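Lecture 7, part 2: worked example. A protein chain together with beta-D-glucopyranose.
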Amino acid sequence: MDIADKKSNGVEKKILKFPEGFLWGSGTSAHQVEGGCNNDWTEWEKKNADRLANEAHDYWQEWQQKKFPEMFLPENYISGRACDHYNRYEEDFDIAKSLGQNAHRFSIEWSRIEPKEGKFDEKEIEHYKKVISVLRERGIEPFVTIWHWPLPLWLARQGGLKSKKLPAYFSRYAERLATSLGEVKYWITLNEPEIYSLNCFLRGVWPPQTKNLFTYLLVIKNLMKAHKEIYKTIKKINPDAQIGIAAHNVYFEAYKNRAVNVFLKKTIDWWWNYHFLNQIKEFQDFIGLNFYFHHRINNGFRKNENKIISDLGWELYPAGMYNVLAGLKKYQKPIYITENGLADASDEKRAWYIREALKGLHQAIEDGVNVCGYLHWSLIDFIEWDKGFWPRFGLVEVDYKTMARKIRPSAEVYKKICTTNQLEILNLKS
Ligand code: BGC
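Predicted complex, written out as structure tokens:
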């Protein structure tokens, strides 16, 4: 990898080359795109859709309410057919291929594979085998996520993530996948265990809506155990498999570098960004990084600049990709960006965002961080959990009435980067 400079007509052109074999792609998760799911989230959606639609009046700002009136409709919060990706994955992977992508992250819906405790559905296993072979036929490397949040109903009824048996259940499910799905090289065991436990068990906003510090800590421990069990199980079956989690790391900054903020930043960094990874250190071959947020810490509160924000009102600070990656260097593991993206329905900021994130990523590689791939979040629009369908994260737009797919202009910008394995930067010289 190197940086090439070219100068002509007062325009400075910099070319950032990425390492040979770098993987370029995008991702999705089953519940968000497949449609036809039957799990603890689908139950929760039905119970909470009216409430969420009502609360939208207070929750969102006026500009968001005007721009996305769908947020007031209960059906916005019901995953239902979602993007019908369960039936249209071939078409969607054709699009990924046409966009020059050579890697794709997707998740297996546990409730399809094991709809009843200990009873595995061969037809559904066949489905995901086909998904993997359709990707391979298109020259796209699969990154298979074992758990991207929803749980089968039988497990939710036994206490879900709190269940003592969770690690064993996960291990049995993973064993089935590893023996049945054939050659999967990259496995992501758990998606963002930190975010999920926080939202479900401390903030109490996602199912089962518990607010209890002890339960929160217990669930984190349980998920650590589950990860280790899955890791050992898959390694026994396929010692060459590469296994990691997708961690949700945040770029925390100490506001104005004040001593108290520096101390708080270090503490939060330790807990949020590194604790889980430290505990599973011996049980991971790579780190999957989901990067979205930059928070400036001021006396324990967030003080974000919010100069540029997404449709969800999140501060966009893609350059922070550099900082989160630099923080992961100490693990000396290959790193794949397993998510990075934004809600941007009018596609005004996405191309800029990708390019800035990749500049940061490139700088991290220059500084010796072993980053091996970038999977944008996401390939197609989807249901954004308790926010519903209106936040649009896709490189490809989905028309939810017709299910038609439309490639957004930013996807073409990303395509050029994927196919050339480099990023061109133009600077006007003053
Ligand atoms: C989750 C995705 C979600 C994305 C955007 C991540 O925390 O893994 O499922 O769509 O954030 O909010």
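The mean pLDDT is 96. DSSP finds 14 helices and 14 strands in the chain. Keep this in mind for problem set question 3.
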